[in-house]
Amino acid sequence: MTATTTGTRPQKKAPGTFELGLSRIGYETRLYFRSPDTLFFTFFFPFIMLGIFTAAFSASGNIGANPDGSGGVSVGAYYLPGMLAAGMLLSGVQNLAVDIAGEKSDGTLKRLGGTPLSPLSYFLGKIGQVFVTAILQAGLLLLVARFLLDIALPTEPEKWATFAWVFLFGVITSAFLGIALASVPRSGKSATAVVIPVVLVLQFISGVYLQFTQLPEWMQNLASIFPLKWMAQGMRSVFLPESFAGAEQTGSWDLVWVAGALGMWLVVGLVVSRVTFRWIRRDA
Amino acid sequence: MISIPPVVQVRDLHKSYGSVEAVRGVSFSIAAGETFALLGPNGAGKSTTIEILEGYRDRTGGEVSVLGVDPHRGGLEWKARLGIVLQTSGESGNVTVTEQLRHFAGFYPNPRNVDEVIDAAGLREKATTRISKLSGGQRRRVDVALGIIGRPELLFLDEPTTGFDPEARHQFWDLIRSLKEEGTTILLTTHYLDEAAQLGDRAGIIAGGRLIDIGLIDEIGGADARVPRVRWRDDNGTVREERTTHPARVVADLALRLNGAEPEDLEVIRPSLEDVYLSLVRGHEVEVAAAGKTSRHRHTGEATTPDAALTDKDVRA
């Protein structure tokens, strides 16, 4: 190195945490779209389910129709909010829990732990990836709903404001719950076996695949403990007509409760993630 | 002369996994620019020692300083000065070699040029191939490339050439020699004793969690372990062998005895590092076995591997 500069040090500035976080988002997102399993079971799963439900139940008429068959919404329109909520859950919880558990067992985390990458940059990358993929997924779902299934989307700005906060709040909560859940599987191979049943059962009891308002009360109460029910309810408030609010548990959309439940689960996810995450499994 | 503090300083290092003592009082130091080979059988405590120096494991006792920092407290700036090639690599690797190296280069304040590292690691033809599509030996080269991309002051190489063909191993040696020329300090563990002999300046031999010998590569084991042997086949077809510090004289005497006839299969054998190593490790095992007769806490090599200890813990948990 030649000392041609005076008063200034040679340029050896370490890259910033945020800057590296951005670089991780690009890297993680690329990896996401290169994994066929993730594409099928996380990204396209809500599309597949929406397609199946629409095809299977459309013949039995509109949901919430009057006795004379008029009114109500199409099957596709009814299931759209549930599928958006499922996408939020899959993009965060399922995606990250399986991904990080795999990275823990295949040595990726150990290698990163030996580099000057800050854990904060690593998490910025993961959460950023969840946001990028969840936004693409939701956007694509809305396009499919509008143009392929011919579902009328809300036009009121308030509805879209509700959509925005429920979506953002739900996705960040899902992302942290995914990081927290990644500490449960003992190996990368068992990760899908541990995570997928949890996510699947939640989808059944929380009103994604089955009409929530038709479920027995005990099941509705059970689902109310978990965040997915609230994400789905928030989404129903955006996409279903006001007349459907009466069928909800308390006869209204309860958006304050949606925010409260998601906030509580976000704190749980943050605390558990913070406590359980390590680059490598701690030894005795 | 200015005394430069050692890059690595280990004093009376101890590490226990539950009731199993994997490392029991190891001390050594590595000077700046030196290549130090840590040798020993599986489960001897090599990997545990190296992982403590890398900051991956906490120690039970003793003092450790790496680049002037206690690895237990080493922050990101400290990590930026290290290069670590771990013993195992098993990443799924849905990225290409170039993408991975470019990404990792971004972590460091003063990284090497990605293309130069790809060439030096012999990965030019595979630069745009996904890591998951590479052979085991090629993946190992990626590991080495990732270990040096940050221009480390201290490079840890934990069994770096496992799975390499002979040509790849020689290429790797050239790469390490060029790093040595640049002044990189290297801590190497390997099961290939010729590799240690080729690259190392000094070696330490670890067995049963203890350092049983340490010294310059061509002096370790002491003069006695390096006495040459003359071997030949006599008229009856039996192999004869003689240890001698004067092999030329023994051969001359032999030729004289045979009236100038050529002795069959004549060899002068100078003990290689491998021979010295094996006699040291066997000597240690004999000692331990003898001690085991009087003590119930006999040390077995297997039980001290970190993995075995962790598995035990997992079963209990």
TrEMBL record, chain A:
It is found in: Membrane. Keywords: Antibiotic resistance, Membrane, Transmembrane, Transmembrane helix. One of its GO terms (biological process) is response to antibiotic. It is a multi-pass membrane protein. One of its GO terms (cellular component) is ATP-binding cassette (ABC) transporter complex. GO terms for molecular function: ABC-type transporter activity. InterPro entries: ABC-2_transporter (IPR052902), ABC2_TM (IPR013525), ABC2_TM_bact-type (IPR047817), ABC_2_transport (IPR000412). Residues 37-283 form the ABC transmembrane type-2 domain. The chain crosses the membrane at residues 39-58, 78-102, 123-148, 160-184, 191-212, 255-277. This is ABC transporter permease.
Automatic annotation (TrEMBL), chain B:
Keywords: Antibiotic resistance, ATP-binding, Nucleotide-binding, Transport. GO terms for cellular component: plasma membrane. SMART domains: AAA. Residues 291-317 are annotated as: Disordered. It is a peripheral membrane protein. The keyword Signal does not apply. It comes from the Bacteria. GO terms for molecular function: ATP binding; ATP hydrolysis activity. Its main location: membrane. One of its GO terms (biological process) is response to antibiotic. PROSITE patterns: ABC_TRANSPORTER_1, ABC_TRANSPORTER_2. It is found in: Cell membrane. SUPFAM superfamilies: P-loop containing nucleoside triphosphate hydrolases (SSF52540). Pfam families: ABC_tran. Residues 8-233 form the ABC transporter domain. PANTHER family: ABC TRANSPORTER ATP-BINDING PROTEIN. This is ABC transporter ATP-binding protein. The lineage of its organism: Bacteria, Bacillati, Actinomycetota, Actinomycetes, Micrococcales.
